Amino acid sequence: MLKGSQTWIFDSRPEILSTGVTGGPFEAAGNLAGDFDILHDDLWMGEETYEKAHSLLIEKAVDTALKKGGVTGKDIQFFLAGDLINQITPTSFAARKAEIPYFGLFGACSTSMEGLALSAFILNYGGAEYILTGASSHNAAVEKQFRYPTEYGGQKPPTAQWTATGAGVALLQKNSGLGTLPYITSATIGKVIDMGLTDPFNMGGAMAPAAVDTISAHFSDTGRDPSYYDLIVTGDLAKVGNSAAYELLSNKGLKIEKGQFRDCGMMLFKEDQPVQAGASGAGCSAIVLYGHLLNELKKGTYRRILAVATGALLSPLTFQQGETIPCIAHAVSIEMDGRQ
Amino acid sequence: MLKGSQTWIFDSRPEILSTGVTGGPFEAAGNLAGDFDILHDDLWMGEETYEKAHSLLIEKAVDTALKKGGVTGKDIQFFLAGDLINQITPTSFAARKAEIPYFGLFGACSTSMEGLALSAFILNYGGAEYILTGASSHNAAVEKQFRYPTEYGGQKPPTAQWTATGAGVALLQKNSGLGTLPYITSATIGKVIDMGLTDPFNMGGAMAPAAVDTISAHFSDTGRDPSYYDLIVTGDLAKVGNSAAYELLSNKGLKIEKGQFRDCGMMLFKEDQPVQAGASGAGCSAIVLYGHLLNELKKGTYRRILAVATGALLSPLTFQQGETIPCIAHAVSIEMDGRQ
Q: In this complex, which of A95, A114, A313 lies closest to B103 when CB atoms are compared?
C-alpha cells in the first residue's frame, strides 16, 4: 500500500527466511568476520579473473541462502539483484547458474535496498512464494573499473572508501505466522539528489543529502518519528558522509541519538585497516545487513532497523565528462518481535 | 497474482495513459517516423556529448508522456527505467531532472518489458497512482562503448544489428474504467538462458532461445495458446534471431502464423537502410511498442499483443574474457477493447 508520496507499507509482513553472506580476505580480517557464512582467503577465489570471482561470491551466497532456508532454486520464483560492474555481468552470470527468473537492478550501492523493497512488495501481494534478492561487489574488479587496478598501488585521500568484497543475499517468503523470523514492514524509495559535488574520492559526502532526503521522506510518509527505530543504518556513507548526514538530519529537526545512527561502511572493517573513511561497494550494505545486523536482530540487540542503502550513480565516463555525482538512497524497515 | 511458475496476471488491468517516444536522424529516415513524438535531425542534439544527448532523449520522452497524460512529475510516484550505458548514467541523469523516486533497471534490451512488468505489478496492487517506465539507447554512445566509435567506420558482418537512437516511455495508471486505453493483463519474467554462443555480432541468434523460453513459459503458465494474440512481437532479434526463434517455437509445437510473429528490430528501419540484420538497443522495443504498436492497437489493427523484449547480458569485458553470451527475455501482454 502506498503511504504518503514514496513509501510502501507491507501489511502482510514478508519474512526473511534465510540469508547467504560471502566475503574476501579483507573482510575476514575485519570487524564482522563471525557474521559471514563463507570467507575466501584470497581475492582470486580459485578463478581466472576477478569478475569470475565476483560471480562466485554471488553464487555461493545464493547457494547458502537456499541451503539454510531448506528450499531449492526451483522453489524460488524471482531473483532481484545487481552489482557495480558494467552491465552488471557478475550478477547476470550468477543468475544464469541459478536458473531463476531474473530482474537485473542497478542502483549502485543502493541496490541492496532497491531489491529488498521490490521483493517485499511482490511478496506482500502474492506475486511469489519465495524471492531471492541481494547485492555484491569485489574490491579488485570494482577498483580497476572505477579507479585503477589495485596492483598499480594508486594513493587515495582520507575521504576515499574501500570497496568491500562480498555478496549478501536474502531469501524472502510470505509471512509464516510463526513470529520467529525478521520481517519487512515498509520501504521508502528515493529520488535522485545531486548537490553538485564532483569528487569521486568523497562519495560519502556526495551521498549524505540523498540519505537525508529519503530518511526525512520515510518519517514524513509514515508519520513515525526516529524513536520508532532502535537503529537507523545507512549503507556506506562512511566517516565523512555519516557526520554530514547526522548534521543535516539534526538541521531538519529529526531527533536521532548518535548511537542510534550508524553506517555499514563504518562497521565492516577494523579501525586499523587502511580503508580511509570506511567501506563502500554494492556489497557493503548487503553484507552488513544480511549478516551482522540480522544476527543482532535475532539476538535481541535491536528490534526495529531502518536500513538506508545509499548509491552514487556516477561512472568513470561521467566524471571524465565533468558531470556532478547524482545520488540516491532507498530505506527499508526490518523488524522482529522477539529473539530467535 | 502469480500464475504458473513465472507469470503475473493483473486483474485490475493497469492502463497506459500516454507515451513519449523520441528518436534520432536514422529513425527519422526509417519506417516508423510517423509514430515518434520528437525526432532529432542529428545525433548530437545540441549537446556536448553523445551521453548527454542520450539523457536528453529520455528527458524529452518523459516530458512528452507527462504532457500528453495531462499530469505533472509531482503526480508520479515512481520512475522505473534503464539503458545500456555503463552504470546506466543517461537514465539516472534523466531521473535526477525528473525528481521522481527512481528504480534503476538493467536488463540490456529486455529493460523495456522488465520495467513494464514491474510497473504493472505495482499499480495492480495500489503501490502507486502513476508510474513512468521506459528504456532507451543512443547509437553513437552505445557503439563506442560496446564496439568502436562510429567515426572509426568499423565494418560489421550481416548478422550484426544497428543500435537504435531513441527513448520510449510509458505513463501508467490504475484502470480508469473508461475502456478507452490500452491495458496490461499479464507478464512473464524470463530466466537467463545461455546456449554457449560467443559472437557479439550475432546477438539475435544468441537471444532467440531466451525469447522462445519465455514465450513457451507464458503459454504454459497462462494456459493460453498463441491464437490468443494478434501479434507476438520480440524486442530485437532481427532477421537472424527472428527466423531462429520461429523455428524453435514450431519445434516446441507452438502454432504461430508467420505474420503473427514479428520483431521490433525488423520494423524500425527501411529495407534499404544499412542496418545489416536489423535494429537493436534498449530503445528499440521501447520505441516500437510505445510508438508504432500502441498506435496500431488504438487504430484497431491489433487487439492483443504479447511484447517480448530480449536482452543480451554481455559486456565488452566478458567478451574479451572469452565468456559466452547469457540472454533473457520478458513478455508483457497489452490489450485494448476497441478503437480509441
A: A114
